[in-house]
Amino acid sequence: MQIVVDNPFELSLELGAGREGAVELLHREPIAADLPDLVEETFVSGVLAERLPAQAERLAVRIAPRWVERPVVRDLVVRVETHAGGEQRSFSRRFARGRWTRRAQAVAGALRAEGRVAAELQVYSQLLAAPALAPRQEPWPTLAAPEISDGSLEELGLRPLGHDEPGGGELDPDRPLLASAAMVEEILDQTERAGLHETGGALLGRIVRLAQPLPGTRTRVVTLLCAALPDPRHVGAPGSLQFSPEALMDAARIAELRGRREQVLTVYHSHGFGTPACRSCNRSENCPLPPCTLVSEDDYQVLESLFPSKCSVMPISGRKPGALGSRPVLEIHVWRGGHMQPLAWRRYEP
């Protein structure tokens, strides 16, 4: 696939600190290396929404800043245009965040730890864009489309869908996701048994193209999460979980033996649940455990090292402030706008 990129700006991240108009520049760095992430997410999102073809001879990318006030950037608009079989299609996505956002938080934390920034000073970060001095060819990686197989509800053995998850609403029109009811209960039970220790495992699933979109959706492409494979080789402790490569390889063999055209689609993990001081982790304002709605920097590192594709999802179980009931909640996150965000999803009965 030929990729042509139109990006007439030099983009950089800037950090500063100060008060009452006196600002000290702390750090500045280019973010050109972060842009392929944005292009891949735009392309993958367009394919999953059936707005772009998975295969194309040529892909034209336009990256354009939207301004707060020049040179400060509010967000970036990435437009991907495909040319395949004489047909032209386009899809756009807006990004106010990216890897540079997480890097800014890490740099700010390190500067405070080094004593370069006083505790009472506010640290700010902003994205800047300046006209490129000369056109140049960016080193863009090859874009891989998600692996999608054709299927039907009958072949998949899906019975009627269950109720929406608390606060989940209807399925996302352009990214429908279904999770096995038995798999969800297994993850929640495992989360409760593990208590304060984080736990997790591999998730088997498929990305399937149905004959018709599900009710309330626009795309026929559906992500199915079918089975959880916990394994004691994934070692958890309060606040951390280390995934075992050997256990993940064995999970791939199990997927093959099941004979359902599944693959290890992603991993899931918990953020702990059942603090002794809490009568209910979901309702207690003093619960020290991170909620399942939070994707930490460690979570991003796990995701991007094990499943770097932007079609990946990250299910996290644990407490969810304000959720009904006293059990853990499963939150499923997807790439959207340069970071992981919760996605509405539905249970299904196999």
Summarize the structure.
By secondary structure, this protein is α+β, with helices and mostly antiparallel strands.
> What is the ordering of alpha helices and beta strands?
EEEHEEEHEEHEEHEEEEHEHEEEE
What does the main sheet amount to?
A: 10 strands, mixed
CATH homologous superfamily title of the largest domain? Cytidine Deaminase, domain 2
Q: Low-confidence runs (pLDDT<50, min 5 residues)?
A: none
- Please tally the β strands and state the result: 19
How far do the termini sit from each other? 38 Å
Gyration radius, rounded: 22 Å
Do you know the CATH architecture of the largest domain?
3-Layer(aba) Sandwich
Classified by CATH, the class of the largest domain is: Alpha Beta
The proportion of residues forming helix, as a percent range, comes to 10-25%
Integer average pLDDT:
91
CATH-assigned fold name of the largest domain: Cytidine Deaminase, domain 2
| Count of helix runs | 6
Q: What is the structural class?
A: alpha+beta
The share of residues in extended strands comes to: 35-45%
What is the approximate shape?
Answer: globular
The tally of structural domains comes to 2
